[in-house]
User: What shape does this take?
Amino acid sequence: MQLLNLLRKIERSVLVALFLIMVLLYTGSVVTREIGGTFASRFAWIEEAVRMMNLFLVFLALGLALERGKHVGITNLRQKLPEPLRRRLLQVIDTVGLLFSLYVAWLAFGLVQFVLKTGQVSPTLGVPIGLIYMAPVVGFVLLALRYGLSLFGVIDRFTPQEATQ
Amino acid sequence: MMFLVIIALALVLLVTGFEMLLVLGLPALAYKEAFYARLPDPAVVQKIVGGIDHTTLLAIPFFIFAANLMGSGQIARQLIGVVTALVGHTRGGIGHVVVGGSMAFGSVSGSAPATVAAMGRMAYPEMRRAGYSEKFSLGLLVASAETALLIPPSITLIIYGWITGTSISQLFAAGLGVGIVLGLAFAVFVELQARRDKVSHGDRVPWSGRLRAVWDAKWALGMPVIILGGIYSGTITPTEAAAVSVVYAIAVEMLVFRSLNLSALIRITEDSAINTAIIFVLLAMGGLISFFVTLAQVPDMILGLLASADAGKIAFLIAVNLCFFIAGMFVDPNSTLLVLVPPLYPVALSFGIDPVHFGMVVTLNVCLGMITPPFGLDIFVASSTLGKPVTDIIRGVWPFVVVNVIVLLLITYVPQISLLVPRLIYG
Amino acid sequence: QEFIARIGHLESAAQSRHVHLEKVAELVAERTDGAVELQLFPQGQLGNQRQMNEGVQLGTIEGTVAPAAFLGGFNPAVSILDIPYLLPEDAAEAQALREGPFGKALLDTFSDKGMVALTLWPNGKKQFTSNKPLDSLTDFADQKFRVMDSSILIEQFNALGASAIALPFGELYTSLQTGVVDGEENPLDTIKNMKFYEVQDYVVISDHGAMEDVVLFNPMFWDSLPAEYQDVISTAFSEVIPDLTAHKAAAVEEALQVITDSGTNVRVASAEERAELHDATWGPASEAYVAKAGETGEALLKAYDEATAASQ
Ligand code: NA
Ligand code: NA
Assistant: This one.
């Protein structure tokens, strides 16, 4: 449980830092353009950097979103099921979600290795593109972790969502 | 056969309440294994990431962030206060404000989901307070955001112009006209609904009171001034306007109003990141599905059917609308535009359909695709930013789908509406 | 069919690249008795150019025809084509350079990048457009130009004292309209097709930048083809080049007419002005190139110098 809390703290800190830096960089590029001249040319990398950061923002938030019952889905029918059946269905969803997330993370890992090997770099910053595919690797692992924790009853991802309905 | 099994799988996952990312992702994986087994597996992830790796999508997270800041602090309330002082006495009241606000905001953001996020946080509580039903409020917020794609600037129109070689200025002019027609249709609907729901409306505020409301909201009004002024003066792009509006909201809420402290900022940032992720993961899965639709060369099949049916102009336009409607239910409508327009456009020309008019028909279809279930991006955005179940929003949206279809038919069969503004401007 | 090659690219179906890809597909189908089918996916239906390049390496798609400007991240050596005035003005001389040792050396640099580079396809020359007058080189100073993602192109604008601004292509029209940037550079037919002339007042025909396409195939797919089919495909891509050049020239001519008729001020840069532009930009741009492409880049520049010296 303590480990899980630490993980949450890391996820939240990274997300907040990423998002605020994206905002600052993008606003900053407006300022550099206003200053103009060749000075502005020195910040042509910002667009590329923010686009990459957004990929990490999206994938790294998947796990937290699941834990908090935020992912969208059509849940009316499943709420009307009798309790034992509903419980069984939720277990099926968690299991399928766990396997799907692990599989996608595994494929993403394959892609990271492949792209790193080809040596592709981003055109302006020169960052290895293989690294951007780390975003889905980590993101789907975090998602798989939450599906797994929910399956084994460590976290309750259904109650908060059901409560708002 | 295999194809039907996969569709059935998607439907089962959908109705039994699997997360939407699984409803889209699992059948896509199954489809790949069934029909493209030789395609390297990591390609799946390449397409998932490809679905969201676009700079123009960045406006969405930034506007979600800004909307959450404004909604949690004072700016949203003050902006609504101004508009209430100005038009709160009319019968439709806040309902008309939502339509007008979405048209103005959507005009500059160019993004329907961003418009839903921003307007939703600001106006939903006010609509409920005025007495509009939950269903109607949600439906109106989601639907009126569509005007973002019609009223210039619009990336959808730019893409259409590029594919077909149509003048973008003419398309923008036509989009303005059609966008206003759509907005008016929603306003009429609001007026009817307001009568039926006996929505409360305030007394007419005297001009002195209106001026006071404007003065009181001077800091809040800086927001639209910065966004609109920044874009039309050529200082910032719409995407940059989204980022700048976040900075402005943080500065005003934290330093001027002192309505948010550091821990509130952190909480809002985190919530906004999660809202973004929920929407973008669906766009990502949509990227995967679009890829397979493209590979399957579906448009060629449609054209084959059209040719074999020896269709006339009217039948052709019906077929176009049907294709887009059905595709729009399941795929990101901007991808359908890329895939369907190239084969359909030459046929439209051969029937003597004006390229600008055809562009309006196509763009209205793209708009419609944003709000048609099950895959309606704007529905998901509203669900995520307002914390409402998808099914509630779908219930609210369908009357607007009907309004939309009526407008679509009108635009489809009365080309003069689309061509009015371009002719006024360009002769 | 025994072999199906899905080929993606960015241009629209009416543009020269797609028209000639269709010709190549026809020739290949005919000469292999339908054993090899090239399926074409225009205007980025299969993703943006970066994703298509990666798709070719991975085997998601079998081929792409990629503008060299989008390949620098995959193979820094190819960015030599971003250096202003690299290709001779004369079409025949330029084609000789493509087909000679320099062109071969350039295509060879792809071999260890997980792509088979078949040939270079000419796709026109870039021109400058702006909303502010561009009467002479000094006018470039302090104007803002949208630039593609390339450190060499950034240096080209820096050398003129201009700002190089990164903007997505889809936002460029509106940005030119509102004035977020003053200008951009593209071939005339792109300026016509994207309607940039609707929102630009000045065009300078400087022919400064080569828009070369690289025809790329997935190595696994390529190696799986019998040698005779490989020959058929290579030959087809090469033999349409004169047609392609002519088609492009006609498209550019038509574009020039449309742009001039629209009332946009079009000016053809004189030979002296071009030489001046060459001298101002060549040094910084080629330094940026070598900084990026290292030894391979230096070797390629040397091959270029030898090839051009031989032709003079
Ligand atoms: Na717009
Ligand atoms: Na839809």
Remarks:
- Residues 83-118 of chain A form the longest helix (36 residues).
- Chain A has a mean pLDDT of 92.
- The CA atoms of residues 67 and 155 of chain A lie 7 Å apart.
